[in-house]
TrEMBL record:
Protein name according to UniProt: Aminopeptidase N
Essential cofactor(s): Zn(2+)
Residue ranges annotated for the Peptidase M1 alanyl aminopeptidase C-terminal domain, each copy included: 550-867
Keywords: Aminopeptidase, Hydrolase, Metal-binding, Metalloprotease, Protease, Zinc
Top class in the EC scheme: hydrolase
GO BP, sorted A to Z: proteolysis
Segments forming domain Peptidase M1 membrane alanine aminopeptidase: 226-437
Primary role: Aminopeptidase N is involved in the degradation of intracellular peptides generated by protein breakdown during normal growth as well as in response to nutrient starvation.
Domain named Peptidase M1 alanyl aminopeptidase Ig-like fold: residues: 444-545
Pfam families noted in UniProt: DUF3458, DUF3458_C, Peptidase_M1, Peptidase_M1_N
Domain Aminopeptidase N-like N-terminal positions: 23-186
Length: 869
């Protein structure tokens, strides 16, 4: 591996050549697949620059220019490029090369795993298939011929429409043609044997689209939900965005070996089976919802990503931020908007804020990239979606859709930039987003300090907001952001006070807003209004505010915005823990908080919202407030708070649990909003009950009575995470029942990896020998090892055993699958935020990796940034 060098956004240059048409032929063979690639190439500039094609891990067989072999003097090949000297301005170039799919454990390019040939090209995997201009601004029409053994690989798939089928002895041939010009990263090929679920969708324009879902043999009973989700997504995109599907066929293939969630290849999505297969016995409610969301996400890319694509990879958020926003809206329109929003906020607070505070902090549109695969981040995706959401908040739904319409009209068929998107939004609405663009350019999480003063005489609230964004690597100075602040107000009684404004725009470093409202009628003479700030998490910022506990209790019970109600509960819990840590004492749950939780528990609010409010903030979110993360204190106080809450509310919790159980058992499992919400509350309560009820038999009984994976897993987790007397017995039962069912066993691995138990490191090590574990399969590594890195106390065990365990796995994966290795490495990047002893141990792992003779670029970039920060 030769060392890669970083690329800068500012250095973008339009391609010197374009490729109009490409014809690919694949003669599939496990060790020696032959690729014949014929490209129609046109010079763009006037200079006679050579044509430089990308290519990695390829064996060149021949090179032909307009029918003639290219002489050795006219081209050269390195391990990354093929350079052709020609002065022609338009020509046909045929490259023949061999690749080895069975040796490909990195799962990038064309690989063979479990008897299925499969591709993954985004971001720069196509260059591992053939020599090409492997960049997203080169759009070509693809025709793909696939030749393979008919019996072993009855299905031969690629992008677009099937235009020809043929047979040659034992082999068969399929020819696919994609009428839409596309960049190489959207190319896909799949060959294998599957069961197929077929359906059709009639577009609002009356066209019939064939839908095909390919799953491993025997899995048809787990495919229905994905198909329903696809049809829902197609309908939703027509109705909410006016975007209609364009090909005659839409195919989804579910595979076991896949580095990420799924891939939006034109007309042929490839999915990690985890986001397709689901039935009540094997999948939790959350799994079902995730399937819906990922199926939607990849489908929505057809317009935001495929029809309009990225000019260069620095613009990744153009398609990802926007498409995440769209999938979030899809889930919210079909399910519970509040629950979805709270889950999205949790992701930002526990993962994105951490990334923003670490050595790899980058703006949603990065300026410098060494390994592109490292930039498929929560920042580009989820913060990117928050930025789109802020545009939506500023413009409203109608204005946003006007902007979308103009964006699509202007740029359909093009490769464009984030700038083009923002300009379309501005032009369609006659607004100026000059300052708003800072969200694209600046990394880091803004901190907003809020001061609220009520002037009874004037019947006004003066709200002063100050923003400050800490420096991030390479960006010392930050300009103020344009921040939408949604606000509402309450009386201590809970009565809502109408305000003169509900959406404020903070643009200065410091700004005071005067809010008028119906204070006189709602407040007694000695009362103050309670202001709710950043309703619906209207901006991805951290809010600092001196707020009295009694005001938080009012917000928790009565804020009109459900996200703010939840947020108040989280602030209550967090402040109890932070105060205890600051005072070096053990957290003490007070009567008012208990009373508030009791009231909520017994209320008739949405059970899912009760569950979320009663769930303590996770360690990662709490850790975010510290420069030096107090591992032991956080763990101790979180555990104590959970036990105290469980003890204080044991009776009403048990009562509500029983009531929910009875309601749910009155009918069989249904994947339906109310039932999902009831299960969520019931299972949240179980996590508390396991703290105070040590009767093994009762838990075993709960386990035996479940008829769905949501409830089964809940009992397993509740016992495993509290070191309950029933835990080992249940873990064994689960193993016996589900061994061999890989996706189900992932839950079992994950449950144990997350247990805060002094022997978890050893347990994880031992589980790596389990017959269902394989280091070559990304899902297994994520569920056992990536999960383990989220286990605050055990990954950060003081003796460094957790670090060594994960460090060794990273070292192994460096050679076979660097993308997966790189994901695991993230856990080490915040090493500077731990105490000196842990810092030294974490740093040692980073240095050990740095010293490896062949460090993959994915790891090189993160290791270097971490050590130099
Ligand atoms: N676009 C793909 C992600 C590709 C990741 C490459 N390392 C999935 C998605 O965002 O829809
Ligand atoms: Zn995406």
């Amino acid at each position: 591996m030769s060392q890669k060098t970083a690329k800068y956004r500012k250095d973008y240059q339009a391609p010197a050549f374009t490729i109009e048409q490409v014809d690919l032929t694949f003669e599939l063979d496990p060790q020696q697949t032959r690729v014949t690639n014929t490209m129609v190439v046109t010079r763009q500039g006037t200079h006679d620059e050579p044509l430089v094609l990308d290519g990695e891990a390829l064996t060149l067989i021949s090179l032909t220019l307009d029918g003639d072999p290219v002489s050795a003097d006219d081209y050269s090949v390195t391990d990354q490029q093929l350079t052709l000297n020609t002065d022609k301005s338009r020509f046909t170039l045929t490259v023949v090369n061999d690749i080895n799919p069975s040796e490909n454990k990195a799962l990038e390019g064309l690989y063979l795993a479990q008897n299925t040939y499969c591709t993954q090209c985004e971001a720069e995997g196509f260059r591992r298939i053939t020599y090409y201009l492997d960049r997203p601004d080169v759009l070509a029409k693809f025709t793909t011929t696939v030749i393979a053994d008919k019996q072993q690989y009855p299905f031969l798939l690629s992008n677009g429409n099937l235009i020809k089928r043929d047979q040659q002895g034992d082999k068969h041939i399929a020819v696919w043609q994609d009428p839409f010009p596309k960049p190489s990263y959207l190319f896909a090929l799949v060959a294998g044997d599957f069961d197929v679920l077929r359906d059709t969708f009639t577009t609002c324009e009356g066209r019939t689209v064939e839908l095909e879902l390919f799953v491993d043999k025997g899995n048809l009973d787990r495919a229905e939900h994905a198909m329903t989700s696809l049809k829902n997504a197609m309908r939703w995109d027509e109705q909410r965005f006016g975007l209609v599907y364009d090909l005659d066929i839409y195919m989804i293939v579910a595979v076991d070996f896949f580095n990420m969630g799924a891939m939006e290849n034109k007309g042929l999505n490839v999915f990690n089976a985890k986001y397709v297969l689901a039935n009540p016995a094997t999948a939790t409610d959350q799994d079902f919802l995730n399937v819906e969301s990922v199926i939607g996400h990849e489908y929505f890319h057809n317009w935001t990503g495929n029809r309009i694509t990225c000019r260069d990879w620095f613009q990744l958020s153009l398609k990802e931020g926007l498409t995440v926003f769209r999938d979030q809206e899809f889930s919210s329109d079909l399910g519970s908007r509040a629950v979805n929003r709270i889950q999205d906020v949790k992701v930002i607070r526990s993962h994105q804020f951490t990334e923003d505070a670490g050595p790899m902090a980058h703006p949603i549109r990065p300026d410098k990239v060494l390994e592109m695969n490292n930039f498929y981040t929560v920042t580009v995706y989820n913060k990117g979606a928050e930025v789109i959401r802020m545009i939506h908040s500023l413009l409203g739904e109608a204005g946003f859709q006007k902007g979308m319409k103009l964006y699509v009209e202007r740029h359909d068929g093009q490769a464009v930039t984030c700038e083009d998107f923002v300009t379309a939004m501005e032009d369609a609405n006659g607004v100026d987003f000059t300052q708003f663009r800072n969200w694209y350019a600046q990394a880091g999480t803004p901190q907003v300090k809020a001061d609220v003063a009520y002037d009874r005489a004037k019947q006004q609230v003066r709200l002063t907001l100050r923003q400050h964004t800490p420096a991030t690597p390479g960006q010392d100075h930050k300009d103020p952001f344009h921040i939408p602040v949604k606000v509402s107000a309450l009386a201590p009684s809970g009565a809502v006070i109408e305000l003169s404004e509900s959406l404020l725009e903070l643009t200065e470093k410091e700004q005071t807003f005067v809010l008028n409202g119906d204070f006189a009628n709602k407040l007694a003479a000695d009362e103050q209004p309670v202001l709710s700030l950043f309703d619906d998490f209207s901006a991805p910022v951290k809010v600092e505010r001196d707020i009295r506990q009694q005001d938080l209790l009012v917000l928790m019970a009565h804020a009109p915005d459900p996200v703010s109600r939840w947020d108040a509960s989280q602030q209550l819990f967090a402040s109890l823990i932070h105060r205890a840590i600051a005072a070096q004492t053990t957290v003490k749950l007070d009567d008012d908080t208990v009373a508030a939780c009791r009231a909520l528990l017994q209320s008739d609010s949405d059970p899912a919202l009760i569950a979320l409010a009663l769930t303590l903030p996770n360690a990662a979110t709490l850790a975010d407030s510290y420069d030096e993360i107090p591992v032991e204190q956080l763990r101790h106080n979180l555990q104590q708070l959970k036990r105290q809450l469980a003890a204080a509310l044991a009776e009403p919790m048990q009562a509500r649990y029983d009531e929910l159980t009875e309601q749910l058992r009155s009918h069989s499992y249904q994947l339906e909003g109310r039932d999902i919400a009831m299960r969520q509350l019931r299972n949240t309560l179980l996590l508390y009950l396991a703290e105070v009820n040590t009767e093994a038999d009762w838990f075993v009984e709960q386990y035996q009575l479940t008829d769905n994976m949501t409830d089964t897993l809940a009992v397993l987790q509740a016992t495993a995470w509290t070191q309950h007397p029933a835990a080992e017995d249940l873990l064994q039962r689960f193993d016996q029942r589900w061994q061999g069912e890989k996706l189900v066993m992932d839950k079992w691995f994950q449950t144990q990896a997350l247990a805060d138990h002094e022997r978890t490191v050893e347990r994880v090590q031992q589980l790596m020998q389990h017959s269902d574990f394989s280091i070559d399969n990304p899902n297994r590594v994520y569920s056992l090892l990536a999960a383990f890195t989220q286990n605050l106390a055990q990954f950060h065990r003081a003796d460094g055993a957790g670090y060594r365990l994960v460090g060794e796995v990273i070292e192994r994966l460096n050679n076979s699958n660097p993308q997966v290795a790189s994901r695991l490495l993230s856990a080490f990047m915040s090493w500077k935020r731990y105490d000196p002893a842990r810092q030294a141990l974490m740093k040692q792992q980073l240095e050990q990796l740095q010293a490896l003779p062949k460090l993959a670029s994915d790891l090189q970039e993160k290791v270097e940034n971490s050590l130099s920060a």
